Amino acid sequence: MEPQSANFYKSLTDEELIQRILATPHDEEAAHHLLYVRYRGLLASVYNSIFKNENWLADCMSYLYLSLKGKRNDWHSLSTYEGKSNFSGWLRRVAFNLFLKLKSKFIDAPHPVPIDDPERPRPSIIDTGQESPEQKMFRVLLIEAVTKLKNEEMKLVITKDLEGFSHQEIALMIQELWRQNNIKKTYRGKPVVPDASYVDSKKQKAIEQLKDIIRQITLGCG
Fold first, then answer.
1. What does the pLDDT average to over 102-120?
2. Phi, psi of 11 (to 5 degrees)
3. What angle do CA 131, 169, 140 make, to 5 degrees?
4. Which comes out higher in pLDDT, residue 172 or 94?
5. Is 85 or 2 the better-scoring residue by pLDDT?
6. CB of 27 closer than 8 Å to CB of 20
7. Which residues are 2's β-sheet partners?
8. Could you give the C-alpha distances from 198 to 12, 70, 121, 154, in angstroms and in order?
9. What number of other Cβ atoms are within 10 A of residue 75's Cβ?
């Protein structure tokens, strides 16, 4: 489908937007407008009923987008909306159930993921209250080092990796971030589309920078 203006999508009903999303090729701009523009307020309200702060709002929004899009990128989950009730009510129920599950993922249960050496236990960025002094020290040091990364994309990759997201999920988050900020990159004249390999490359570069940053901090030079 040809890209349309924001005013065009604004003029469409929910059902018309959904039809464009489900049609082939899928209209990603219509999906973005539906979730991030038209129903952002509703989704933020659902989020606030579950979480006590806005730390994970962007994550929950991204996860909802990915959930509706499905692993095959065919928007199968969205297609389960049959139009028998208002879409806003259907979306509210779907978002509430998903956000409730994500609350345990983000807060209640840690997801420790190795940064470099898979043989060495690494702490989660979430304080579990059951860490050894060494693990707690490394977690605090790691968080400080991540905040010092100058590249925001590397910071996103490392943070989401530590939170337990797959590289494919992180790639889709980056795609959405580029879409929101109208970012377009090319390599040897061809457009770049973030995928799992792109995320893996960013992670490896971030790891090398984190090693240097942690070394500087421990030497008192940070």
1. 53
2. -80, -15
3. 25
4. 94
5. 85
6. yes
7. none
8. 35, 20, 25, 11
9. 19
If we measure between CA atoms, which residue out of 105, 210, 208, 71 comes closest to residue 147? Answer: 210
Whole-prediction pTM: 0.56
CA–CA separation, 36 vs 17, rounded Å? 13
Measured in whole angstroms, how far is the alpha carbon of residue 29 from the centre of its chain? 17
CA distances, 49 to each of 89, 121, 204 (Å)? 15, 35, 37
Q: Which amino acid, residue 20?
A: R
The CA radius of gyration of the chain, in Å to the nearest whole number, is 20
Q: Which amino acid does the sequence have at 107?
A: I
User: Distances from the Cα of 163 to the Cαs of 28, 123, 182, in angstroms?
Assistant: 26, 11, 26
CA 44, 49, 50, 51 torsion: positive or negative?
Answer: positive
Structure tokens at 32: 């973005």
Cα–Cα distance for residue pair 27/119, rounded to 1 Å: 44
Query: Does a cis peptide bond (omega within 30 degrees of 0) precede residue 123?
Result: no
Residue 77: both structure tokens together: 């989950």
